[in-house]
């Protein structure tokens, strides 16, 4: 058994007396690729924010790489692409390079400037998401899918061991979605990265992930993909309150 | 000719003050504009007015404060207010700009009350309202130099943190950037720069010097670095024109500086449409 990347135990959370999460236990081992699914408003993004310490749970414990969140400081081991990444100011004067580089700033720390090798890492991350020809373009002038890839490059540039993505494929065309999942599969298999992906593409994702968690206030399923595939109707009916059409992509 | 101009001590001081302010104001302005906080400059300038009035009042009432430069009390007031702006901003998550009118009207109100309580000063309050670059005194120049050095250091050392926080605050914080510290230092720098700029452009026009060169640079810059250099360039052109106009024609320096900035903005926006027709940001879809 490998290292535990993320461990959440007995998480309760509410926004102004409205209970959003109840008794959630989530665990991600090193090398896992977990898909977190659930209907709108089921608390997926909230759970990620709790995992990252942006929100504090009412009850329960969170630890990252075996360290309680309170004491965790190694933020560069984690990459995060927020669901709202795409709602930035379109007229912001910044190139793709500048935005991707900002993913390194936390790791560099105060008082350290970008060096040549840091810029090389920036170029590599941009290449990894296939944006090298656009690296000096203004980020606001890119298409939605290209912007999304730039944000993934920003999360990848610090070479994280654990990547957290909140609905990264919204607004991305079908071909780019497939390409995007292949990139994630590559990071997972070749680089041994652990991934936590929030998504609504349930059908597509079962081909890539090895773990699935289904959330609607509490967890309705948390286990291996193989086990899930046989029980998906029953899990979805319980979690969504009605059966869910699982759309498979033609490959 | 330049030698002749620099023969005058007041011209040397004016030039030094103008160049320093023309570098730091647009840089601070760029970070404010991209975070949609450019009106903070206005709010803090008006708070400075009440600080200046308080200083003048102290001078008048208590001989012990004769040596106090009203710019210093102005600075104390705007530093305090800048900390409050950050607090107020956190109080209203989605109406962050609400902090600005609160501070602005509070500052003006207090300033006006203090001025009326003093029943007239023997210095010209208008000099603070509209600025007069040729009247920069020796002690004021030192305040401006100190501000320039401090602002330069904070921006150099925290450039990457400021950029990351301006572009995407949530991700920046989650990547481990100390938001509070950086915001606090930056708001203190904003307050210092605004107070220092008042001598050059005046309370009523400070926000023009802080935002107009940035507005022009945003029309054409693709990268943040470009926006930075262009806004400094535009600000320098404006400040030097204002200085020349004040020296040769006795025009108000602050007014000239802001007018030249407006002309640059119009020229840049117009030139952009000429070169790339249809690429302008027209807003209407
Ligand atoms: N800042 C907030 N203040 C108050 N309530 C909130 C806030 N953010 C989210 N909520 C509430 O918490 C619940 C869970 O929201 P969350 O964003 O975690 O859902 P989600 O599963 O990510 O949904 P989606 O699939 O639409 O992204 C929702 O009912 C929402 O109304
Ligand atoms: Mg969400």
TrEMBL record, chain A:
CDD domains: ABC_Metallic_Cations (cd03235). Residues 6-248 form the ABC transporter domain. It comes from the Bacteria. It holds the Pfam family ABC_tran. GO terms for molecular function: ATP binding; ATP hydrolysis activity. SMART domains: AAA. Keywords: ATP-binding, Nucleotide-binding, Transport. Belongs to the ABC transporter superfamily. This is Zinc transport system ATP-binding protein. It comes from Melghirimyces profundicolus.
Automatic annotation (TrEMBL), chain B:
The keyword Protein biosynthesis does not apply. It is found in: Cell membrane; Membrane. Keywords: Membrane, Transmembrane, Transmembrane helix, Transport. One of its GO terms (biological process) is transmembrane transport. InterPro entries: ABC_BtuC-like, ABC_TroCD. SUPFAM superfamilies: ABC transporter involved in vitamin B12 uptake, BtuC. It is a multi-pass membrane protein. The chain crosses the membrane at residues 14-34, 39-58, 64-86, 98-121, 141-159, 180-198, 204-221, 228-249, 255-275. One of its GO terms (cellular component) is ATP-binding cassette (ABC) transporter complex. It comes from the Bacteria. Belongs to the ABC-3 integral membrane protein family. This is Zinc transport system permease protein. The lineage of its organism: Bacteria, Bacillati, Bacillota, Bacilli, Bacillales.
């Amino acid at each position: 058994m490998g290292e535990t990347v993320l461990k959440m135990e007995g998480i309760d959370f509410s926004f102004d007396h409205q209970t959003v999460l109840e008794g959630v236990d989530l665990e991600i081992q090193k090398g896992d690729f977990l898909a977190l699914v659930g209907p709108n408003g089921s608390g997926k993004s909230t759970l990620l924010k709790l995992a990252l310490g942006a929100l504090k749970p009412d009850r329960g414990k969170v630890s990252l790489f075996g360290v309680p969140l309170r004491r965790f400081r190694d933020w560069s081991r984690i990459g995060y692409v927020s669901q709202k990444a795409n709602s930035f100011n379109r007229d912001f004067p910044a190139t793709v390079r500048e935005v991707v580089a900002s993913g390194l700033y936390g790791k560099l720390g105060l008082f350290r400037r970008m060096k040549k090798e840091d810029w090389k890492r920036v170029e590599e991350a941009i290449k990894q998401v296939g944006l090298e020809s656009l690296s000096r373009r203004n980020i606001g002038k890119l298409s939605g899918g290209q912007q999304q890839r730039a944000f993934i490059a920003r999360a990848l540039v610090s070479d994280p061991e654990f990547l957290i993505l909140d609905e990264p494929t919204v607004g991305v065309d079908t071909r780019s979605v497939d390409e995007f999942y292949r990139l994630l599969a590559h990071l997972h298999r070749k680089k041994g990265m652990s991934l936590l992906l929030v998504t609504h593409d349930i059908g597509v994702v079962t081909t890539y992930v090895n773990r699935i968690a289904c959330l609607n206030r509490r967890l309705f399923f948390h286990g291996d993909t193989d086990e899930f595939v046989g029980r998906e109707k029953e899990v979805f009916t319980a979690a969504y309150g009605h059966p869910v059409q699982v759309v498979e992509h033609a490959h | 000719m330049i030698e002749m101009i620099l023969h005058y001590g007041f011209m040397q001081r004016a030039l030094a003050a103008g160049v320093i302010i023309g570098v730091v104001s647009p840089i601070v302005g760029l970070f404010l504009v991209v975070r949609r906080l450019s009106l903070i400059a206005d709010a803090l300038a008006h708070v400075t007015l009440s600080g200046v009035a308080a200083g003048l009042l102290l001078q008048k009432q208590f001989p012990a404060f004769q040596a106090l430069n009203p710019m210093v009390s102005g600075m104390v007031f705007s530093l305090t207010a800048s900390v409050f702006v950050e607090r107020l901003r956190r109080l209203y998550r989605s109406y962050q700009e609400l902090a600005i009118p609160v501070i602005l009207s509070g500052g003006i109100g207090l300033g006006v009350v203090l001025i009326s309580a003093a029943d007239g000063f023997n210095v010209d309050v208008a000099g603070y309202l509209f600025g007069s670059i040729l009247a920069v005194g020796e002690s004021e120049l030192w305040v401006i130099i100190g501000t320039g050095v401090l602002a330069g250091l904070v921006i150099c050392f925290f450039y990457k943190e400021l950029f990351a926080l301006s572009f995407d605050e949530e991700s920046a914080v989650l990547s481990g950037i100390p938001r509070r510290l950086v915001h606090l230092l930056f708001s203190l720098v904003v307050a210092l720069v605004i107070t220092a700029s008042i001598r050059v452009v005046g309370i009523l026009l400070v926000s023009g010097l802080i935002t107009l060169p940035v507005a022009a640079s945003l029309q054409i810059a693709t990268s943040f670095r470009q926006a930075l250099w262009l806004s400094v360039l535009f600000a320098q052109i404006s400040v030097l024109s204002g200085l020349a106009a004040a020296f040769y024609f006795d025009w108000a320096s602050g007014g000239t500086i802001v007018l030249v900035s407006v002309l640059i903005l119009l020229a840049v926006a117009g030139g952009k449409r000429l070169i790339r027709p249809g690429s302008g940001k027209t807003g209407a879809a």
